[in-house]
Amino acid sequence: MSEMQAAVSRDGRTRVAFIGSECYPFIKTGGLGDVMYALPRALTRQGCEVRVILPYYRCIPDRFRSRAKYRGSFMMDLTLEGRTFYVGIMETEMDGVVYDLIDNREFFDWGSPYTGLWEDIPKYCYFSKAALAILNYMEWIPDVIHCHDWQAGLVPVYLRTRFEGTPVAAAKSVLTIHNLRFQGICSIEHLKYWSGLPDHLFDYPIFKINEREANMFKGGLAFADKITTVSATYAEEIQTDFYGEGLNGHLWYHRPKLCGIVNGIDVELWDPAADALLKAPYSRDDVLDKKKENKLALQERLGLEQNADKLVLGLVSRLTDQKGLDLIDAVFQQMLDENTQVVILGTGDPRYENAFRYYESACPGQVCAYIKYDESLAHQIYAGADALLVPSLFEPCGLTQLIAMRYGTIPIVRETGGLKDTVEPFNENTGEGNGFTFDRYEADLLLDAVRRARRVFLEDRARWDALVCRDMEKDVSWENSAGQYMALYNELKSWD
Ligand code: ADP
Ligand code: GLC
Question: Is the dihedral of CA 231, 236, 241, 247 positive or negative?
Fold first, then answer.
């Protein structure tokens, strides 16, 4: 260990800086926000010292903005011309995790975090560089810098180029792929200008992907000391043509430093026994009665026929191609019967929003399409539905099936990525397993899985109830996976 590191890690705790574009409860658009919240807390419980670095977006609710205290500021150069930009640090703490929010109105004053690649590329070039600069400024040098998705993709690159020779360069870097579909691709000129990085990086091994374009994620993956992704199956899948999103060759080349560590969920945040958003909180011991109460309350809230004997299928999802919604669309009418209701919560592609709105108007009292982002309704669906649909085309990990199991709601999933790693298929002979699964991306197979689930629900309730209880007992917490990240950080620390 270098003298400098020995000085900063005096108490022996591993120091980790998380860098990413969203984090619950400040800002969340999907599972990345959940992980940026839950994993630092789990690592803190295992003895790590964690700081989370985020943009100080204008759209962060005032109750969090007002809690953050000014910690300092400085000017930082960025771009090929060396233009200077303000970097403010707003700091807050929650349960032992420190959050440093980077303040700059020019980049972060928009109504939502992601506003289109043309603005997002400069925004996240600035963010990645500022994140390293604030660590030097605060003289808080981590053992490991843990970067998340393409928005933090330039961090490992800056760390080994512009920041070489500065204190923060003592840190090792991990880059986690939460979703390879989004990579931060733009013209070579645009990235060259905003990143201000040297010309030689804009060749094929690093940023370049074709004669015109550069890819921020690709460069980060090349420079990171370790690459992780959020399930073992997705780690394998992304090295193939189908799932590799054009980077499969690059990932195959870098596979010695790639591994999959499956996500968990925060079992305090997602706790049916202490969930204030539920009509009737419950544990494994009273789930069978209380779930009915929650179902009736959900049906009432959404204007569905109130009947606890109906099979309620839930969907809580971004409405994008990734999530297998075209399969649901293709067999929607066949999925519904007089014993079934469907509840959809999500926003996204207008094509799916409109399709689901249509089904709601065609089947009043039986289908509800709630086209919004709504945390409280999400909790009520996890508690009140009987089964949750997750028929994804690809799914790096997926959190909704984990939350569903914790709430005794049976997942119906396609066997891909983290869905395959977390949902063991129900075996009709032995009664073992956690959910109903299908393999190929075909609408008829989804329909078959729904029908199998419905048969057990309607005709073999004792088995269904046993499944509900077993799912509630499954360990979906972060503890085990946080231990695997600790082992990875320790390996990186031992490199000195
Ligand atoms: P992804 O990150 O691909 O969107 P995940 O399954 O990992 O998928 O995580 C999705 C997270 O976002 C879950 O916490 C889920 O409850 C939440 N979520 C998705 N859509 C909505 C919505 N419309 N309203 C509330 N929460 C939502
Ligand atoms: C991504 C993936 C999802 C994963 C989440 C958190 O958004 O689509 O599968 O659970 O990140 O890692």
Answer: positive
Ligand nearest to the CA of 260: 2
What one-character DSSP code corresponds to residue 426? P
pLDDT surpasses 70 at 3? no
**What order of strands is seen across the sheet that includes strand 97-103?**
69-78, 83-94, 97-103, 49-55, 15-19, 144-148, 172-177, 226-229, 258-260
User: Which pTM does this prediction carry?
Assistant: 0.97
Domain ranges of the chain: 3-264+479-493, 287-475
Q: Which residues line ligand 2 (CB under 6 A)?
A: 30-32, 35, 178-179, 230, 263, 395-399, 418
Secondary element (H or E) of residue 368: strand 367-370
The secondary structure of residue 333, as a DSSP letter, is: H
Rounded Cα gap, residues 287 and 32, in angstroms: 29
136: which 2 tokens? 């030097």
Q: Give the Å distance between the CA of 346 and the centre of ligand 1.
A: 8
- CATH fold group of domain 287-475: Rossmann fold (3.40.50)
Tell me: the pLDDT tens digits for 271-323?
A: 999 999 999 999 999 999 999 999 999 999 999 999 999 999 999 999 999 99
Q: Is-same-fold flag (3-264+479-493; 287-475)?
A: yes
Residues with a CB atom less than 6 Å from ligand 1? 30-32, 34, 316-318, 345-347, 373-375, 378, 397-400
Q: Which CATH class is domain 3-264+479-493?
A: alpha beta
Q: Which atom of ligand 1 is nearest to the CA of 265?
A: 14
Residue 10 confidence class, pLDDT cut points 50, 70, 90: low
